[in-house]
Amino acid sequence: MLKLVVDNTNENNVNGSQDKTCRSHCLNFDASTNECGFFKDINLDDPKTTERCQKYFEWEKDLDVEEEEIFELIDDEFSVEFESSDFPFEIMGDKFEKGQSEYPFAPDFDCGHEDGIWFVAEDESFGCWIINHSKKRFLDVNSHVAAKEGWSEKIYKSPYPLHNHNASAPLCSRMAWYVEQDGYGQYVLVINGKIQMLTEKKPKSW
Fold first, then answer.
1. pLDDT per residue rounded down to tens, the chain (206 residues)
2. Angstrom distances, CA of residue 31 to CA of 47, 71, 90, 206
């Protein structure tokens, strides 16, 4: 008699698939150099890296949808502590002249998005592009209203970022605060008008 045994304690078995990493599954991983073909100093063994990376698989079409939308401004005093930076890596072969940089007051690179707007934080500690595809436009509301958190503490409803992306110097002018249709914003990496890296992929159950 044959017996089928399923290990329900193993998430990979439950899902019927193995965690996919850059090292084990991505065609852009170079085994000879042990590096990604696009990004330097990136975590090659974290499945979340492959979920975030648009060079690994195609992001949902939501990011390409452009509609007439309205948004509302939220709490200017909102603040939150983050344990780590999300974009400390760099781009392979990127030519960046730090001595000529005007960041954060002006971007060193054009984001390539015709609807991209350069944003500088009030305290001038960082800058980024803003790409707003939400259903609402900017409206003033009570400044004590807290930002509504999304599927991650670093993703929340705001037409502009309320925390520093802390990206590496060559990436700072390629960072964008992308606001999706429902108003939730997150940092993304934009290269030649295309989103190449996300803070965190939106769960299907959200």
1. 433 333 344 444 333 346 889 999 898 888 899 998 889 998 999 988 888 888 884 334 444 544 444 444 444 444 444 444 478 888 887 777 778 899 999 999 899 988 899 999 999 999 999 999 998 755 444 455 678 999 988 999 999 999 999 999 999 999 999 999 999 999 999 998 999 999 998 888 88
2. 18, 46, 19, 36
Q: What are phi and psi of 129, to 5 degrees?
A: -85, 150
Residue 125: HSE in the Cβ half-sphere, 13 Å Cα cutoff: 9
First to last CA, the chain: 42
Cis amide linkage into residue 104, ω under 30° from 0: yes
Residues contacting 173, CB < 8 A, separation 6+: 101, 103, 107, 108, 109, 127
Question: Which pLDDT score is estimated for 138?
Answer: 58
Please give the C-alpha separations between residue 112 and each of 98, 131, 193, in angstroms, as whole numbers. Answer: 21, 11, 4
Check residue 196 and give left, alpha or beta (phi > 0: left; psi -120 to 50: alpha): alpha
Q: Model's pTM, two decimal places?
A: 0.70
Among candidate residues 126, 141, 9, the one with its CA nearest the CA of residue 72: 141
Written as six digits, the tokens of 44 are 């090659």
What are the φ and ψ backbone dihedral angles of 56, each rounded to 5 degrees?
-90, -50
Residue 73 buriedness (CB in 10 A; 0-12 / 13-18 / 19+): middle
